[in-house]
Amino acid sequence: MSSIRSTLKDVAREAGVHISTASRALNPSTAFIVHPVTVERVAEAARKLGYRPHPLARGLRTNRTMSVGVIIPDVENPLFGPIIAGVESVLVEDGYSVLIGNADRGPNHADSLVEDMLERHVDGLILATPGRVVSDTARQAQRDVSMVLVNRSVDDDSIPAIVGDDHAGIGLAVRHLRELGHERIGHVAGPEWVSTGRGRRDAFLAWMSTVGLEADIDLVEEAEWYQVEPGTTAALALLSRHPDLTAIVAANDLLGLGCYRAVRSLGKVIGVDVSITGYNDMPLLDLMQPSLTAVRVPYRRMGVDAATTLLALIAGEDVSPGRVLLSPTLAIRSSTGPPADRG
Amino acid sequence: MSSIRSTLKDVAREAGVHISTASRALNPSTAFIVHPVTVERVAEAARKLGYRPHPLARGLRTNRTMSVGVIIPDVENPLFGPIIAGVESVLVEDGYSVLIGNADRGPNHADSLVEDMLERHVDGLILATPGRVVSDTARQAQRDVSMVLVNRSVDDDSIPAIVGDDHAGIGLAVRHLRELGHERIGHVAGPEWVSTGRGRRDAFLAWMSTVGLEADIDLVEEAEWYQVEPGTTAALALLSRHPDLTAIVAANDLLGLGCYRAVRSLGKVIGVDVSITGYNDMPLLDLMQPSLTAVRVPYRRMGVDAATTLLALIAGEDVSPGRVLLSPTLAIRSSTGPPADRG
DNA sequence: TCCGATACTACAAACGATTGCGGCGGAACC
DNA sequence: GGTTCCGCCGCAATCGTTTGTAGTATCGGA
Predict the structure, then answer these.
(1) Hey, are the CB atoms on B78 and A283 less than 8 Å from each other?
(2) Whose CA, among A141, A326, B62, B190, lies 20 to 30 Å from A48?
(3) Do residues A255 and A194 touch, judged by C-beta distance below 8 A?
(4) Protein footprint on strand D: which nucleotides are under 7 Å from a CB?
(5) Which residues in chain B come in under a pLDDT of 70?
(6) CATH class for domain B8-53?
(7) Residues of chain A with CATH 3.40.50.2300
(8) What are A225-266's pLDDT values in tens digits?
(9) For the domain with range A67-164+299-327, which CATH number is right: 3.30.70.660, 3.40.50.300, 3.40.50.2300, 3.40.50.720?
């Protein structure tokens, strides 16, 4: 029966008050202006009619849409599921809805999505697009709308960012290997133009010297992209330069799995001749043969924190820009072990 | 400089026409009413001012929000990434945005999300929530808004649904095994209350007799849930009842991987002693040891088709209810092979 | 009795667009 | 030359809210 929405006018008529009084009565922040018994009468009428404010009308007047945009580089990447879930869980709590944008059509796609979102008057924006620099459109957008970066940051830290602590994460991997007794450790890095690519590489070199090993840039081989194939290629290049490596820290799980192939093609045994660590700990890694030791990044938490700081920004609280680092953990599995004795 | 949005009024003033004329000039479907040179003048003014219609104002008047809701049972499940991507890709093309709802908080959560979406006046709804029956809220919702089901259907086919052709998919697996020479084939089924669980089980039995094998319900073991552990449990139960099975068709990839463990724990070799097929072909299966032969469902396509029929529904074209079946393919890998010779 | 303060409530103008309808020209026709 | 018609444009109502301002009681105090 209630297929036709009841409007504020209906509620007002039902309660025998003027529409504006009804509006104030229903709004908690203005309810004190109207007489308590009137408030109750209006509330009763609203309940009876099943009144729901029209979000468009309200948004038009108040200039808020109660929606935020989330721009993801690739929805099909399992990595982003938890982030989205985290974001969604806290925003829904506060009555916001989540507009999702999938920027899988090249580098400029994200920008056009940002513009779409702005046109829709989202109250906030969460960007997970890669890259260390931020486009002009995005920077422009920051003036018009609250904005938070997730799983990435910008070089000048001008936008609040929630990121995994890559330095700590790589540290977990390197120290783990060091404690197992490894001394010749290499790194298969991600592309340098991606913030995580460069960051993890730097962290690797830094930790190498921290644990008392040689921090040679020559121990690093950059993969063209975060995928299995480039991982194999890079690992092969690395292992041909340094045949004596006993361990490889990969900048990403897929790169790590790429290393599997490289190591196998050389007739060596993973976890015995060459230990391998991944990064991100995506699903199913534990079912690999051997299961991949990997740095686990709290992605869901990342989404939660991003949404929380976005809400703070929207509320006008001043959030310090700069990045918030989330601590990773290490899932130790069977792709890592003590180095094999050289006979 | 254009931080402040220009409105239709500005455009009208700039072009020296009335606001209503400007409106008509800018709207392709009404532009023929106004003089061509005026149209051009208005268009020029709009371009100059960077005018963008205010979606809320427009939506308030036209009763359309140009947004559709997509409700997913679990965003973290990699399965739904491609569906979302497919949906998004076609909707964005037509100027719609996608509101995402993650129904991971129990069975009633989906309903409350549907209500949220309705309150927001979405123009359409795409449901991917599981279950063979549809809740009353959803059924109610169908009156108020266009609605399409994806990756699921309802028993009475009262709502248009885009689903994978499970019968054909199971057929691919069974026939593949049969052609390899298997004669004792079992099935690890999904939960019966899920539409895919029951459907694939029925398909399995049907195909068994089609290929000339015994279609015994005793060859089926139902797993409690689509996960690895329940898969192992079910497979163990099945193999203890029928130690002579040479192949298992799993209702799901994770169940298939669960079978791996069961087979291994019995000291048998996968793909030799016991062949296994999965269903869905989720990422990384090709990197498993052995790589899992699996029925591949065109999930992205599913999203695309769902969105397309939703657009048709919204446009008022009458779409025949009932289900559209998408044909799966078979990714043959190394978990299947000819049955080992006995004795 | 009258005044001013207090406590509500009503009026009406926004927000930015769409759209039915009426008006006003000029051309065509009788 | 008057009527009709048509092409083009402006007027104003409308969608459902929020909110500044004006109005009306009621009450206390002088």
Answers:
(1) yes
(2) B62
(3) no
(4) 7-12, 14-20
(5) 1-4, 132-133, 341-343
(6) mainly alpha
(7) 67-164+299-327, 166-298
(8) 999 999 999 999 999 999 999 999 999 999 999 999 999 999
(9) 3.40.50.2300
